[in-house]
Amino acid sequence: MSADVVPLRPRAEPSLSPMLALTAQGMNSVNAVILDRMQSEVPLIPALAGHLISGGGKRLRPMLTVGGAELCGYQGTRHHKLAAAVEFIHTATLLHDDVVDGSDLRRGKAAANIVFGNPATVLVGDFLFTRAFELMVEDGSLKVLKILSGASSIIAEGEVDQLVAQRHVDTSEERYLSIIGSKTAALFAAATRIAAVVAEKSEAEERALDAYGRNLGIAFQLVDDAIDYDSEAEESGKGKGDDFREGKMTLPVILAYARGSAEERKFWQEAIAGFLTEDEDLAHAVKLINRHGCVDATRERARYYAQRAIDAIAVFPPSAARDAMAEAALFAVARRY
Q1: pLDDT at 52 over 70
Q2: How far is CA 12 from CA 15, 22, 52, in A?
Q3: Rg of the chain's alpha carbons, rounded to an integer?
Q4: Are 230 and 290 in contact (CB under 8 A)?
């Protein structure tokens, strides 16, 4: 199947609005499934799950399933439950992440572990994982089950790999990209690919949507990591400098360490090891990152992956859906939150 390259045209203010409009009707159905399946006779479960699920997230991952179905011309409703499963998987990982990281904030408000405690947060995350797998089984497709269960496994591996790499200042850019490819991009890829599966599209079209989601996921995480050190970024909805204090070797730090002087590298060694965690230390880290252009370099890499995402869906004919998904990639790299 031949394909034309879709150029990544610069726009003043890329917006998620076309994607929101494209998926509005489908996402209403997805949200109804989410609301229904997060219920339980144990009151703490919907209370804690709702604390995060209703917390203002963009729901980009289930939106990709709905948008992918639109791109494929799918007229059915199977993807609604599957998109809800995608959101449950994502929400479960966020709950577990906040416990592991000891986070105070999530989406601009107190993290669930702060409000409800670590044990309840972990267990409700487990509940949401089981709900996701119930929805997959109800769909009845072994191929869909394989894609989503495989992504869940890869996400867990990525999170463990990130934990192992934490506070290791010698983490390479290659290792970092492998980690975010697992912990973030795998679910983006699966969320988008299953749309082609339910639409009974060709293997080539499945791979195209997988590549779109995977590259978009990498771009999205790169920007998230840039925002944590971007002094001009708006409030990101999490504690500013969380990555720094947790000793995470994200790309801005990897680049700053590689480009820094011996004195600067000594600072990073002490900071990543956990000996420099005060506000003035964070301010100095931001100064070093800005000195070497590391936020801009990280965003430039994100634009590269966004371009790959957009090119991947060139196998589909021009349509409003393809345009909306292309602009979603532009939005992912241009956002400041």
Answers
A1: yes
A2: 10, 21, 32
A3: 20
A4: no
pLDDT in tens, 178-190: 999 999 999 999 9
Query: Any residues with CB less than 8 A from the CB of 7 and at least 6 apart, and which?
Result: none
Helix axes 78-101, 60-71, angle to 10 degrees: 150
Distance CA 196, CA 38 (A): 26
Q: Tell me the average pLDDT across 214-229.
A: 96
Give me the count of residues in the chain.
337
Strand partners, 106: 109
Task: Report the 10 Å Cβ neighbour count for 17.
Answer: 12
| Helix/strand/coil (H/E/C) assignment for every residue in 6-52 | CCCCCCCCCCCHHHHHHHHHHHHHHHHHHHHHCCCCCCHHHHHHHHH
Rounded Cα distance, 30 and 110, in Å: 26
The pair of structure tokens assigned to 212 is 């779109």
Which token pair is 248?
Answer: 């995470």
Distances (CA, A) of 49 to 53, 54, 127, 131, 188: 6, 8, 9, 12, 21
Q: For the whole model, what pTM was predicted?
A: 0.92
Task: Give which of 336, 291, 306, 112 is closest to 211, Cα–Cα.
Answer: 306
Confidence of residue 3 (pLDDT cuts 50, 70, 90): very low
Q: How many CA atoms lie within 13 A of 258 on its CB side?
A: 14
